[in-house]
Model the fold of this input.
Amino acid sequence: MSYIEELVGLLGSERVTTNPTVLEHHSHDESYHTPHLPEVVVFPQTAEEVSKIMKFANEKRIAVTPFGMGSSLEGHVIPYKGGISMDFSLMNQVLEVRPQDFLVRVQPGVTRMQLNKELKKHGLFFSVDPGADATVGGMAATNASGTTSVRYGVMRDNVRDLEVVLADGRIIRTGSMTAKSSSGYHLTGLFVGSEGTLGAFTELTLRVYGIPEATMAARASFPTVQDAVNTVVDILSAGIPVARIELVDERSIRQVNLFKETDYPESPTLFIEFHGSEQSLQHDIEFAQGIAGEHGCTQFLFETDSKARAQLWDARHNMAYAFVHKSPGKKMMVTDVCVPFSELADAIVNAREAIDRSGLDGAILGHVGDGNYHVILMIDLNDKDEVARADKLNAHLVEYALQRGGTCTGEHGVGIGKMKYQRKEHGAALDVMQSFKQVLDPNGILNPGKIFG
Amino acid sequence: MSYIEELVGLLGSERVTTNPTVLEHHSHDESYHTPHLPEVVVFPQTAEEVSKIMKFANEKRIAVTPFGMGSSLEGHVIPYKGGISMDFSLMNQVLEVRPQDFLVRVQPGVTRMQLNKELKKHGLFFSVDPGADATVGGMAATNASGTTSVRYGVMRDNVRDLEVVLADGRIIRTGSMTAKSSSGYHLTGLFVGSEGTLGAFTELTLRVYGIPEATMAARASFPTVQDAVNTVVDILSAGIPVARIELVDERSIRQVNLFKETDYPESPTLFIEFHGSEQSLQHDIEFAQGIAGEHGCTQFLFETDSKARAQLWDARHNMAYAFVHKSPGKKMMVTDVCVPFSELADAIVNAREAIDRSGLDGAILGHVGDGNYHVILMIDLNDKDEVARADKLNAHLVEYALQRGGTCTGEHGVGIGKMKYQRKEHGAALDVMQSFKQVLDPNGILNPGKIFG
Done:
């Protein structure tokens, strides 16, 4: 009897499949990394089923790769060792909303937008917004963040408790429902960002927030990237609680204008969002506008109405598409370094020079409040020279960041794309990480070939 | 040659001592737990020296217990296995202030007040305030917090990077200087709160904040604990960014009046602090006062002047003393449970009933924004019955909290006092913690007998 038949014995035939279309769907993510088929896809419905599958796979030394929505950006969910792709789409229940505790208990297959739809009924929202409608399980696995982390923190800040199934089938809880704890080692923070290499999440308790009374959006254009970043420094130093603050560089605005036939000022642009009371927003926006003016801001627009806000941010939302659309047949490679805030302006200027030197087409957008910025490159995977130039550019950006106290990945995670930088970034600490991996997954069945190679 | 003579060979005779007074100083903390002498106290000056001592102790299987200020509350620094007490008072330099990054690099022996004195020159402050003038190394080791965590987070939220010396002498860095990272396992969060059982910290990079433009303090009295807690719920739900919000119960205010001959209203009282601009504070205080009024507030006072603010909070500051002063010869036992916010009012009412039932004298104060509250008991350690009643009360409070998704310790840590509750709180996750301990400290030399027993 093949191991797949045994899996059918465990889960039933409907939730164990080798259907080619399903296998193909689980062979890739949204990145440029080479796809690889799993041997079988399973759809567990409970932690106990996940535990049974794990125990089985561990005994048989079969690779298990957890799969949410497949929206990862560094090959995280690609099952390079074949084996089992464990799809959590049937574990997609919002289990409990606790408005007074600002908490929600969910299954890992719940998506960000699904969760926010449910929370809206309670006047609450889940803050982490990586753009894609990822599952919360996947977001926790990569410690995702995005545009709102400057105000509300990253995924790790918003996961209060996890139920985790370990490689040997043990089911543990890593935290509690309290706002703080000094009891035992902080396993929650360790499992968040472990990219499926230490265990599979079967339940998450997440921190949520009250929907702000009012929201305001602004767009501000500047002569130089430094002017824009200095504006951000002054806004944050003054304690203005911006909810989002994004930078898009001049070249990227030009691409949007080409793509959308718009006439946005082709200069470094900040996209800002404010959350608060109507009264406080009035104060915040005036303050921000004043600071922007001191740094040579050439245009400052703001809107409160939901539709007008979306239009104001249109260039930001369309930036990736503007490049994708103009690059048929190419694949997107997104860099993800993060530097100390004080290094950001220089880093972005340096990145733009490096892109131009490489001869590649590339957008820059930055979660500037965090010191995190992306270079979005469109590359032809069949053009070896182009791939090599993109790799070299990526390596340059990482090297630049690491030399200045930065990290190779601010929010996308390591997957396979950032593996080669792990030793350089972490030094001897990488051995400590590997020893934890070894102790929890001695047979190496959990998402093998990721983070450590 | 004794191992102490060998240590002298490593560090020189001036920084290795068996002086009885020094040994005695390193035999206890501020808790009621039984003191125990170390065999020797060492005073390293560099990470390299710490590494040398560790390697030596690891080879000889000698216990090493890191020591900061000795202000721990659960016996953390008491060297029950004798051996080496490693005192970090000579590693007390503020190494670098990076105002634009809101970061500071410090050695572990720097104290909270020393750090704030230095930061003040840059218009910055370090937010974590556990009351005692602890060292930042000790605060990181216990994941300390205190009155300000409702706004600025706990120690773990504010440690960006650690240099750690492991049991075998390896020196690692756990993080980076960036605001966020998804690179590798989150070791920083794991080492914070590990209570000296996984390694010794030799450098910390900490998040700091701009000193607020204005500060306002308030004191509000309520008919019942529920009214006070409901006020907190509404204030926090409305997004009023209070910097501190503390509850003191009726019995405790009465004790302060007895001790200080004051006439504070003997009813549940909230002590609040607001940080912001003068304009925003005006708005915040009016809003808070309005909410308090809706919940039956009988007296609401507020002050901006620094001296007047201190006076307004006088009853809060004096509460512990009021009990200590009236209980000569007794030792303080402080409980530290934390519950989900929605459970807090009931938990405090239940705690007061349990204290009264126990026949012990006890204050209740709560970091109510976090769901964390302390019962401060004065006990005669020679009175076995009293000790037994205090233990029983503590166990009752922990049991109550754990049944409601809470934790046995919100901010003091496990040490030896909360060890007996670890299995109940963490279940199978405790085995995972122990496996990490085993892999990093196979000879069990690091602060033995803590957390796991």
User: Anything to note?
Assistant: Chain A has a mean pLDDT of 95. Chain A touches chain B through 88 residues (CB under 8 Å).
